[in-house]
Amino acid sequence: DANLIISADTCTQLNLMVNEVLSLVLHWATNNGLKLNASKTKYMIFSNKKIDDIRVYLGEDQLIKSETEKFLGVLIDSKMNWSDHIRALSTKISRNAGILLKLKGKVPSKILHLIYNSFIQSHLYYCAT
Which of 43, 45, 44, 39 lies closest to 61, judged by CA? Predict the structure, then answer.
């Protein structure tokens, strides 16, 4: 997997820069015997302002704009407000807490603590700093 980060002052500049960079990347990949899969390639625009849609191409294929993507286990959305990530994390932790609750009184507290560290605390601490 690869990620490109491109910054521009206007949507017009962004559109030109993105398509130019992707053209160069596609050319490099082709020259090095690699093939890029446009159906698995998406783009995201980070902004808290209303942005005009841009047309992004990988060769002849127009790419799909994504509002939320998972990157290294973290759900990132185009507004950078983390609500999708928090919702997914809450669901995962709630499910694991339910398992802990069912085990309470059936396994020693040291084991419960190990399970907590593995299935709950690890999710809370991942990317926390």
Answer: 39
